[in-house]
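User: Structure please.
Assistant: Input sequence and predicted structure:
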Amino acid sequence: MKKLFTLLALTVGFTINAQSDSQGNTNFGTRSLDSNTSGSNNSAFGYQPLKSNTTGNDNTAFGGKSLEFNTTGTDNSASGAYSLRNNTTGNYNTASGNRSLYSNTIGDYNTASGNRSLYSNTTGDKNTASGYASLYFNTTGDENTASGYQSLYSNTTGGENTASGYQSLYSNTTGIQNTASGVYSLYYNTVGYEKTAVGYSALERNTTGIQNTASGVYSLYYNTAGNNNTSSGYESLSLNTTGNNNTASGYFSLNSNTTGANNTAFGYKAEASANNATNQTVIGYEATGQVDNSVVLGNDDVIAVYMGEDSGAKVYAGEGSFTGNMTIGGDVVVSSDARLKANIMSLGSTLAKLLLIDGKSYTMKKDGKQKIGVLAQDIQKVFPELVTTDDKDMLAVNYQGLVPVLINAIKEQDNKISRLESLVEKLISDK
């Protein structure tokens, strides 16, 4: 009962001490609305709130020295000691929390919620800050949104940034159009622009890199100046520093890349062959790139690759290398148009050289299979054009290239047979 009487006494006391005028203004507290002349529909509660207001309308100030220096600004709401204290002519601002939007003078359409949020803002417009000291140093930056303790803390003039999470985009000063969601995401970014980071410490170390997108804990963590990278997955591209134009999707994908560029990796721990690899495409679980400017499909356990679900899809490629058997259900057609060739000459006599080659039977060391063929070293001695060396210094034979050699040898042998037949016929007729 005593509490009820106390509440009634406070209510009566407030009603008696609160002042209202014909212009719809209400004030309660020492020097509240002290200088008002023609301003209307203002409400001031506390020590010196809206003290300097003269003609500003529709303002609400609740808390000691809130909106203290406002003169002609309208439609502002300040709740908390010193909130919007220095606002003079700024309009449509909302500040909630001790010293929120403290330094704002003429900035419009700002919303600050949290102790010292948007504290340094002076003329910046359309900013939204929620959380202790969020957008603290923003002065003239526009259209920023910060949610979380000290998010976008150091931003001064950067605009159109969105930060959500503890100290997200903390160091950003003039960078624009960045989006950070997650604790420490884009923490060190200063002037880089057009980046998106989602996840704990995503793109945390980025400073000047532009147009990067990171999704996942620690994704693109160490990136500083690398541009146009996209990563999705835990620690994907996490060690990248200055590499550009890389795309990684999957847990630890392209994790070891630092300065490599133009690489694409899809799959759990899909990696390029080196930290400075270039233009490698790696697809599959724990697949690893081999050399630059190459594509890897699958890891060591993959036993088949189907194109178009084995429905007859065409595969277009340049040179190829196969270490196992190849089975072809159709014809093997080799491009041989004369219009593609220059310096065309007949091979001439090939029989003598062909006789130096001996067909062999042998057993393959890797699988023990019995084979029939030739030895590359034998071919290299007489037809070096038909032998190539791979990157492991192993020799290979162009068996298809032996066809014209055989054709000319058969023609040469046929010519000899024809001459012998003629000689036999002559000997028979002379008897």
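Confidence is low (pLDDT under 50) at residues 3-16.
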